[in-house]
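hey so i finally got around to running the thing on that chain from the lab meeting. sorry it took forever, my laptop kept dying and i had to restart like 3 times. anyway pasting the input first so we r on the same page abt which one it is
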Amino acid sequence: MNKKTQNADLRLGFVPLTDCAPLVMAQELGLFRKYGLRVSLQRELGWASVRDKMTYRELDAAHALAAMPLAACLGLGSVESDCITPLILSLNGNGITVSSELYQSCFSREGKFREEIQRLRHKRIFTFGVVAPFSSHRHLLRKWLSAQRIDPDDDARIVVVPPPQMVANLKAGNLDGFCVGEPWNAAAARAHVGVCVANSAGLDPGHPEKVLMVRRAFAEKRAEEHFALVAALLEACEWCAASDNHEQLISTLARPEYVGVPADTLRQGVEEFCIFPDRTMADPSADKAAWTLELVRASGLCPNPERLDMKLAQSVFRLDLFDQAVGRLSVNSEPTPA
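ok and heres what got predicted. didnt touch it at all, straight out
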């Protein structure tokens, strides 16, 4: 790999969640520098900000929800933007948390929550937060509600809330619960305002969660930087997965410029919820493309469902580019920094 430093910063966006860890550690461990990159990490409030900044070329690449590159290509929620993913950054990682009040009143026995919804249906509707319309969170929440014989369309309201604002909205009574990535489930429990009642591992184990989202033009016109970025982040994923590194990872993510929460709040996500993949799991394979395609299709929010096919999905989930980046990674003999 060419170690020559780039003239300009590569603008890389992230949302403050535990699974932004590969981006943070690639910066902190000097992995971007190892691959000849100079990266500017940009902390964003939520996924709408990431989407818009990718669309209008204010970011070159970003930590993103698995379905975001596909949704961008379809123009769902924004103007069409030709994006791809060459790398899966994390699997699993989400939890469903309900307010402490709701948990105490409705979760003492099976079926009681549904009974309460039916009893109050003419007085109020229970409201749950998710982080984006096209996300695993919406899928997981709907699956959890349906398993309790609660209709997610008629018996509950699902609204979009940025991840860092979930706990405040739960505390204020604006939400009865939410599905979000860590550390925000743990933060709700730490503040004694919520109880986590389900997670990704129990609802849809091994689902692709976050990906590296890049503009197709960036991948093609700045191919060397693109391959270097994928290689650096893949090394970071493998570092994050090693349990011996978890204390350093937690203390780094806790810093205010990254996730900015107490270290103990991050522990659950790092040690239990998030799966950081090695090169055998980080590939944007056909099965991951198919899972994401079905996620978007099942949402019912695509005005042109005829465009939702595997040809489109595999043009977004670029296994060929991942393989090329891994090839470059394997010939780089320098060890990952400690």
